[in-house]
Every structure is written in C-alpha cells, then in structure tokens.
C-alpha cells in the first residue's frame, strides 16, 4: 500500500497531467477532459512512475478534495476542475447560494479589489460554499484572507455559475462590486 507521501506525490502528478500538461506524458484528453485509464497507466509506467489501476483507484477514492473522477465504467479519468487546457466539463448552470467564499492572501488583495477575481490561466474562478474550505485553499499560500462573494446577486445579474463534481463553485469572473 502507498504511504501518504507517495499518494500525495501521485495525486499532484495526476493533477499536473490531467489539468495542465497531458502532452508531456503523451496523453490526449477528449473534449470532456477524460484520459483513457489504460493509456494513462502505460504512459506513467513508461516515465518510470510505477502505477496500476488499483493505485489509481486508491488515489481517486482517498483524495480529500475529490480532484478526480472516473467515467461510469472506469475506463476514463479526468480532473474535476482547474484545467488550463481546453476541455468542456459538461457542467450545467446552477443557481448558487446567496454567499460564496474565496480564500486568498494579502499579496493578491489589492489586485483583487481593483480588478475583481480573475480566472487567470484556468477556465473559471473557484469559489467555496463554506469558509473552512476557502481557508484551506488560501493556507497553501500564506495567512488566509476570506472574501465573501455576493453570488446570489451575481446570478440575478446574469452571471453563470457551475457546481463541479467535487463541490467547487465555478464562474468566469467576479466583478469587484460583488466582493464584500
């Protein structure tokens, strides 16, 4: 069985491949962001990453952020969100709660309060339904600052929201007027 460090390392590698650089490993994602599981395992083993289906299943099942999902028959895998490569995740527009949260740190605050939340090199801005999750996201970069987003007002104003398979709320942009 894998150690926690090995699981974390493989999870980060899968995120890198499935979200950002599939071509580096000879992987082709379909239009919905899925990679063929057998091909992924083969390519990883060719790159001296010892992995099999059981290991991949373990990573998907134990990832506390539910970053990955298999298709219904387990033959394909994808990242749930956060892609910088062109994919269509197939999420349908949903009405968000009145307030969502975004975790950030001090060094980004001035820019956010000037330009709002930008998706940068990703497909969407990521928002959380609770402050605990937003805090965990921000803590990776330093002392967390939690912003409240008037998501209900944004939705009423015509902004589209999507809910990813792992509970992350996605939108194109958050204008500064909707940040508390």
From TrEMBL:
**Coiled-coil ranges from the UniProt annotation:** none
Enzyme class at the top of the EC tree: transferase
Note whether Transferase occurs among the keywords: yes
Q: What is this protein called?
A: Probable RNA 2'-phosphotransferase
One Pfam family assigned to this protein is: PTS_2-RNA
SUPFAM superfamilies according to UniProt: ADP-ribosylation
Record keywords: GTP-binding included? no
Record-stated family: Belongs to the KptA/TPT1 family.
Gene3D superfamilies the record matches: 3.20.170.30, RNA 2'-phosphotransferase, Tpt1/KptA family, N-terminal domain (1.10.10.970)
Q: Per its database record, what is this protein's job?
A: Removes the 2'-phosphate from RNA via an intermediate in which the phosphate is ADP-ribosylated by NAD followed by a presumed transesterification to release the RNA and generate ADP-ribose 1''-2''-cyclic phosphate (APPR>P). May function as an ADP-ribosylase.
Parts of the chain that traverse the membrane: none
